[in-house]
Structures are given as structure tokens and as C-alpha cells.
Amino acid sequence: MKKGMQVLRAWAARGMHWVGLAGAIGVSGAAAAGDYDGSPQVAEFVSEMTRDYGFAGEQLMALFHDVERKQSILDAISRPAERVKTWKEYRPIFVTDARISRGVEFWNQNAEALARAEKEYGVPAQYIVSIIGVETVYGRNTGNFKVMDALSTLGFDYPPRADFFRKELKQFLLLAREQQVDPLSLTGSYAGAMGLPQFMPSSFRAYAVDFDGDGHINIWSDPTDAIGSVANYFKQHGWHTGEPVVSQAELGTSTAEDALTQGLEPQMNLSQLRAQGWRTHDVLRDDLMVTAMRLEGEQGTEYWVGLPNFYVITRYNRSAMYAMAVHQLAGEIARARGVH
Fold it and tell me: Where is the Transglycosylase SLT domain (predicted)?
């Protein structure tokens, strides 16, 4: 406890004060604390933070004294991948009556912020609501791991992706300093994703906004900041205001499936796709860059053409089924709220 308070005073003296003293450094020095004491990897990391960003090495080492290596995190990330679900199995996980009704409730509670975000960023409210619904059920499931524990465990004890998580740990310490919060007080998923929209630290620093103007960005318990941050993420990744997301399609030739897109990046425009036998249900511009998809739905095979806004959603999570779930949940929430 004494050591932790000395660290906080030292950071404050250097103009780096971290608030949130209820979870102050050193207060929770449990049995597993000190997992990274004497670690050469941590010493090297601290040296980099000192050299590149002006952190005080002794104070960072004291911070890491209270960081815990979590075996449950390593177990979670090392778990064998599930069999890839089909669309008919994936969709019911996210497009549910409960998620729709809670989405309407979230929209009603935050109508002013959502209307302002839609006006300022050009992203329809239902898509902002849907992202938060898919990610955390509107803040109900944001994760209970300390972000410092998660990123340190994966950055120093998970070699397959250690470089990525160490970079995120750097970004996390920078955001904690910028926002003046105690890094040990912030929680997230086992992979370090944070708050209602589940931003990684690098995404937080790049896209999160102080949408309520209180001088701090709080995506953990402030829906207004979370709403503005999701809208800004979409805008910065190229959201086209007023344009559709997908169009259902039919195939007119036996070889049309040869045009299915490999991966998520659009590889042809709609004119080229039409030349290969695809017909969309909607009237769309020939020059749109598109993604050609086949999904196995409840009623059989479905063909869809993903438009530029669909690709924007996949930048949030690199999965066509994720983006489709966000799109369809958004539509159901809007219909349930009477928005057309």
C-alpha cells in the first residue's frame, strides 16, 4: 500500500496523475502479485516506454509489481477454435427478441446522443445501437478482467501474438496517462477489449471521442461517449451517409458462383459482378465496389452483395457474418422502434 501511494505521488509530480484512487496501485496486492517482478521482458518493455514516451522506469516497474499473470486468459485464447458456424447457426445468437427489445430501450434512453451522432457523423442510429448490442448487449457484458492483466499476460506469456499485445499494452498505458485514470482500475475482455463498444487500446486512442464534453473519454460507463466513438469509428473507416449496406441477389448462370469474393476486400465493381450473372434486388450504381457472398440460411442458400458500407462494418470485426448480423439486428431494432 505504501509503495503504491508513492508511485501515485511520483506520477502526479511528473504531471502524469492517474485518478481512481479506490483502485490505487498496490491496494490489491494479492498472493499472485509480483508475477512480473524480475522479468527480463518487462524490463525491456519498461525501457522502451521510458525511452520512447517519457515514462519513469521505476514507477512503471512498481506498477507491474501489481500486475497478475492470468492462466484463465491464456486458456481462453489458446482454446481450440469452434467449428465455423453457418449463417443459420450464427444469426440466432445475435438477432434475438431480447437483443432487439433491449436495443429499443437503449435507443430510447440515449435518443439525444444518438440523434446528434447521426447528424455529426452520418451514421444511422440503429447501426450504432446494433454494434453496442452485438458487442456487449448494451453494456451488460463488457468483461471483468483488468486490462493491465490481460495485455501483460498476452504480451509477455503468449508468444504467438506477443508483439501485437505488447503494442496494445503500450497504447493502453498512453491512454491511461492521457485520460488520467489508474490503469489498474480499467476492465475489459480477456483480450483487452474495453467498454460498451469493446475498443482495443489502439482503437480507443485513434477513434474514441469525448462526445459529452466533460473532458474525459469514458466508454466503460458513459453511453454518450461510447455512441460518439462508434460513430466516429465508422466515419473514419469510410461510411457513406445515406447509402445501403447490402442487397440480396440471385444468380443467373451456372458459373456465377465463380465470382464469389475470397476474403472481405471488394475485388470487383457491381458492373463486373453483373457480367458474371449476378442480379441484385435493388437498383444500384455500376461503379460500386462490392463483395459477393453466399450464406447458408434457414431457408437454404442465400446470395448477397456487400456494398461499401458493409465493408466498413467488417473493419470493426473481420467477419462477413458479423457484419451481416449487425446489419440485420440494426434493421430489426429500427422496425421495432418505428423507424423506416
Answer: 40-330
The pairing of strands 187-188 and 145-146 is antiparallel
The pLDDT of residue 80: 87
Strand, coil or helix: 312 = helix
Map out the domains of the chain as residue ranges: 2-68+143-193, 246-306
> Residue 30 contacts by C-beta under 8 Å, 6 or more apart in sequence?
68
- Of 118, 135, 168, 332, catalytic: 135
How far is C-alpha 71 from the geometric centre of its chain's CA atoms?
23
CATH superfamily of 2-68+143-193: Bacterial muramidase (1.10.8.350)
Tens digits of per-residue pLDDT, 174-204?
Answer: 999 999 999 999 999 999 999 999 999 999 9
Active site residue 168: no
CA-closest candidate to residue 102, choices 142, 126, 137: 137
In sequence order, what are the residues at sequence separation of 6 or more whose Cβ sits closer than 8 angstroms to the Cβ of residue 127? 234, 313, 326, 327, 330
